[in-house]
Amino acid sequence: MNVEDLRLFVTTLDAGSFTAAADTLGVTKQYVSRRVAALEALLGVRLLNRTTRRLQATELGLLLYDKATTILADLRDAQELVSAQGASLRGTLRVSAPMTFATLHLSHVLPLFMQQHPHINLEIDLNDRAVDLLADGYDMSIRIGTLEDSSLIAKRLTDMQTILCASPAYLAEHGTPADLGELQQHACLLYGHSRHVEWRLREAGKPRNLSMRGQLRANNGELIRDAAVAGMGIAYLPTFIVGQALESGALVPILEQHWPASAAVYAVYPQHRQSARAVQVFSDFIKQQIEHLSA
C-alpha cells in the first residue's frame, strides 16, 4: 500500500467528504476519490459507503482507519525524531488560535519563533470557534477558559481572569452597581458569538449565570473594550484584552466579589501529537512569551 493513499483515506474519513479532504490537502476532489477507489481495488474490499450527504466507513474501513492512523503517527514521529538529531526543526505546524488573543499577544512574538526555527512552516488559523483538531487537520490549538472533557492533551500556558469593568466617566455619570441586580439595570456591552449572551459570575460564593441585554453586542473583544473606554457601558472581558486599559486607568474594575473563578489559556493537541517535538517547542515558546499575563 502507498503511504500517501493511506493518508488520503484517513483525511477523507476525518473530514467527512472528498471535497473537504481535498480542501485540507490542497488537491482536487477527483484525485482524492480516485486514489481511495484505487486503494479499495488493491485491497479488494469496500472501505467507504458513499451517500449524498456524507461518507461513512464500513467495518473493514474502520479497521484500516485505526491501523492507518497509528502508522501515519509513527511515521511522523520517526521523521521528527530523526530531524531532532539535526541542527533545527523542520516541517509544517498548523495551529488554530482565538482571533483577539492572537492579534494582541501572538502576532508580535511569532517573528521571533520564525527566526529561531527558520525551517518550520507555520500555518496559523485565527478563529474563535472550537475547531475539531483531528477533522480539520490541526497539530494544536490555543484555547481559553474551562475545557470540556475530551481525549485531547492540554498544557496550561498561563492563568486568565474575566472581570467586570467600566470607564471612570461612565461610573461618575451612572454610578457603580452594588450587586448583580443593579448590574442588569446598567448599560452592558456584550461580547459573544450568539444573540443570547450570558455572563458567568458568582453570588455568595456560588456560580450564577446572568442573561444579559445591551445596546451593543460584538464577537470581537477589542471592539467591546474600546466602547467601554469610551464610556458606553460596563464590559465583561478577560484580562488579556483589558489589561493595558486597567493599567492606564482608562478602565476600572467593579464588583470584584462577583467575578468568576480564574481560568487559563491552554495549548491543546491530539494524543498522537503529544510527543511531536515541533508541537512541544512551539507550546513551550508561547508559554514563555505570555507568562506575564498572569502576573
TrEMBL record:
One of its GO terms (molecular function) is DNA-binding transcription factor activity. Transmembrane segments: none annotated. InterPro entries: LysR-type_TF_proteobact-type (IPR058163), LysR_HTH_N (IPR000847), LysR_subst-bd (IPR005119), WH-like_DNA-bd_sf (IPR036388), WH_DNA-bd_sf (IPR036390). The keyword Nucleus does not apply. One of its GO terms (biological process) is DNA-templated transcription. Keywords: DNA-binding, Transcription, Transcription regulation. The keyword DNA-binding applies. Residues 1-58 form the HTH lysR-type domain. It comes from the Bacteria. Belongs to the LysR transcriptional regulatory family. This is Transcriptional regulator, LysR family. It comes from Pseudomonas fulva (strain 12-X). The lineage of its organism: Bacteria, Pseudomonadati, Pseudomonadota, Gammaproteobacteria, Pseudomonadales.
